[in-house]
DNA sequence: ACCTGAACACCGTTCAAGT
DNA sequence: ACCTGAACACCGTTCAAGT
């Protein structure tokens, strides 16, 4: 199982191996020993190329963002801003536990810089002040990361235990409906509205509100 | 150090102990053995009261929310919505790593239900449809959790290593300013705007945009 | 310069055994 | 019913030793 010793260990190949382990075992199952085994080495060997596990997670964060693509220029800043949000979400959903990996990690990889540069360019061209453009960009990434983080984690112990998402949602609805109506009239009345909408709908709702709020700045 | 054996172990006292360990050691340092030691028992004893560590984290999530208070009724739904967001952020910032604990955990504790019930009541009274009220409530919690999550995690390896937040931010600004201006004209030009604003300002910006976007629905 | 073996100080969880 | 001791299968990290 050991790699041919002529092929030296590199940070790139450690990152690729870590990505495969992440996909297979999830973030909780990602250990130095498993990453080492994936490249046919001992755990201790990794420490020659990498300071610690945290640095492997940094590499992983960069790898997740690596295939980000810029949305086409339509001339409509609002549509482009929405599209940026949708693509970022899709990118995070594409890799297992990606939102958790990226969560509070600031990457200054070339891909991230290119995306940020392009985003700021479009917002300034649309007429936003420098300060507002910078804040609007930060707002988008905070919203998307927060949203996907909730989306990727099981929404209840039941779902974690293996029940399907739909089943878990129905159970949540039952909780709301079973509440005493005199104490919780709104929860009982809105049980369906709280539980039914799927994640795409929820995401889009927030994204549209944010875009509308930004548009109001251009007044 | 052992507790008097007449005082039995309960889930409540386990939760309180876990909260103290969290405050002292952070989420990464929270172990079954340390929680057990905090109540003067063996780690194995906890498993009589609790299914596993995950369930302790659930208790912790409830405990974090436990002292949530409802904002005063001003008759202005927008101001009340903003205040809800600010208070939720303050609550998460008050306990160490609280955002990470709460992150993808759905709590149905009585405090959470009371808050949700009250929030929905105000939004409906303001004229939002049932569906929009439900979505607006979800949006707020997603935004606040995502924001604080980024806020509570070190924004760079430098800060994790002990440098102050201001110092780390200045270093980030230097990164932007040092980029080649022909490749990254916007990043270079907006370096200050990207780095200078403090977290309160960033949070408020997003909150105001979201409230404005919601207001547009009432049109 | 790069990698390994062995060790250290931890984990979460289980389970027979005690009271 | 409730708690313990001891064990199992893991962790991240260090470090002398090998090549």
UniProtKB/TrEMBL annotation, chains A, B:
<protein>
    <submittedName>
        <fullName>TetR/AcrR family transcriptional regulator</fullName>
    </submittedName>
</protein>
<dbReference type="InterPro" id="IPR023772">
    <property type="entry name" value="DNA-bd_HTH_TetR-type_CS"/>
</dbReference>
<keyword id="KW-0804">Transcription</keyword>
<feature type="DNA-binding region" description="H-T-H motif">
    <location>
        <begin position="31"/>
        <end position="50"/>
    </location>
</feature>
<dbReference type="InterPro" id="IPR009057">
    <property type="entry name" value="Homeodomain-like_sf"/>
</dbReference>
<keyword id="KW-0805">Transcription regulation</keyword>
<feature type="domain" description="HTH tetR-type">
    <location>
        <begin position="8"/>
        <end position="68"/>
    </location>
</feature>
<dbReference type="InterPro" id="IPR001647">
    <property type="entry name" value="HTH_TetR"/>
</dbReference>
<dbReference type="Pfam" id="PF02909">
    <property type="entry name" value="TetR_C_1"/>
</dbReference>
<dbReference type="InterPro" id="IPR004111">
    <property type="entry name" value="Repressor_TetR_C"/>
</dbReference>
<dbReference type="InterPro" id="IPR050109">
    <property type="entry name" value="HTH-type_TetR-like_transc_reg"/>
</dbReference>
<dbReference type="Pfam" id="PF00440">
    <property type="entry name" value="TetR_N"/>
</dbReference>
<keyword id="KW-0678">Repressor</keyword>
<keyword id="KW-0238">DNA-binding</keyword>
<dbReference type="InterPro" id="IPR036271">
    <property type="entry name" value="Tet_transcr_reg_TetR-rel_C_sf"/>
</dbReference>
<dbReference type="InterPro" id="IPR003012">
    <property type="entry name" value="Tet_transcr_reg_TetR"/>
</dbReference>
